[in-house]
Amino acid sequence: MKPSVKQLLIFGTGILIASCSPKSEDANSSLKIKTVKAVRLNENSAQEFPFISKPYRSSELSFRVGGVVNDLDIFPGKYYKQGDVIAAIDPRDYQVKFDKIKAVYDQSCSEYKRVESLFNLNNISASAYEKTKSDYETAHANFTAVKNDLGDTRVTAPFNGYVQDVKFERYQDIKPSQALCSFIDIERLKIEFFVPQQIAVSVSQGDFVNIRFDALPDRVFQARAEAISKGASKNNLSYIITAVLSNKENEFPAGMSGKVLITNDSAGGSSLALPHHIIRNNSQTGPYVWVNSNGVAKSCNVKTGKLMRNGMMEITSGVSADDVIISTGMELISEGMPVEVINRK
Questions:
Q1: 319 CB burial (10 A radius; 0-12, 13-18, 19+)
Q2: Cα Dmax for the chain
Q3: Which tens digit of pLDDT belongs to each residue from 102-160?
Q4: Do the Cβ atoms of 263 and 44 come closer than 8 Å?
Q5: Are 37 and 289 in contact (CB under 8 A)?
Q6: Quick check: 259 and 212 in contact, CB under 8 A?
Q7: Quick check: 225 and 203 in contact, CB under 8 A?
Q8: Backbone phi, then psi, for 332, in 5-degree steps?
Q9: pLDDT recorded at residue 311
Q10: How far is CA 169 from CA 61, 69, 74, 87, 203, in A?
Q11: Cβ–Cβ contacts within 10 Å for residue 107, how many?
C-alpha cells in the first residue's frame, strides 16, 4: 500500500522540526569562557631605565703653539687640580723671541712717554706725536702676542679632573691645536636615560631620581634631574632626561652602567595591569576589553600605559580591580552575548 500525499507531508514536517530543534538550542546556549581580574600594580614597584654614566665635563687639551714636548709625565687616571701644569714644550725659541720683542717694546714705551710730555707742552708737532703713538701701539701688540706664545708653551688643567687618553709621548714634535690628551671632570656625573612620554611629563627639572649601579646592586643613590628634552628622539619616540649625580670624592669612575629607578607613583600613581593578549583594539574607539557582567558580555573601553616585561599591560583607566575580565574566546564574542565561566573552582 502506497502512502498518501498527506502522510508524506506529515512525515517530512516531523523530520524538518527534528533537524531544526538542536540548532535552536545551540543559538540560545552560552559561550564557555575563562576570566581574570586586573592586578593592582605595587605602588612601591619601580620602572628601570638603563644608563651609562658620563663625565660632567670633558675636554681635548692641546698646545696653541708648536714645538718639541719636553715636559710630559702624564698617564690615564692621573689627577690634576685646576691650573696645574700638565705638559710643556721646549720654550727656548719662544723665550728668545719674547726677549727681543720686549726690548723693542720697552724702548717704544719710553719714547712714547717722552714725546707725549713734549706734545702736552706744545713743543712737538701733532704728526710726530701720532707717529710715536702708532709705533708704541704696534710694539705693544707684538709684545702681547709673544708673551701669549711663551705662556702657551705650557698646558694647564682647565678644571679639577683626570687625564683620560694620552695621545703623545715625551720628545715628540707637536703641532698647534693637535690633541695632546683628553681630560675629564667626574666630581659630578651625568646620567642620561631614555623614558616614554608618560615619564617625561611627570618628571620636572630639579626632581631627584634613584639610581643603582650594576656593580653596586645593594646601594641606591639620588641624582638631580637637570634637563628634559623637549622633543622625542627619532629612533624610538622616547625622551632624554639628564640627571647629575654628586661625586665629590671621585668615588665612581665615568662609564659605569646602571639603572634609574622611577616608582609608579612618580609616574602617574598606582594603576592596574591585565594580560596584553586580552586587550582588543577598535580603530575608532581605541583599546577595549570584554567584561562579564552577570553572565553577559559587555565591551569596556580602557586607557593603556606601559607594556611590562612579564607580558602585562598597564591599564590607567576604564576598569576596576573588581571587574571580571573575559580572557578567552574574545574573537567569538559580540555585545550582549550570554557567557558562562568555566574556570571557577
A1: buried
A2: 163
A3: 999 999 999 999 999 999 998 899 999 999 999 999 999 999 999 999 999 999 999 99
A4: yes
A5: no
A6: yes
A7: yes
A8: -100, -5
A9: 79
A10: 14, 8, 9, 10, 47
A11: 13
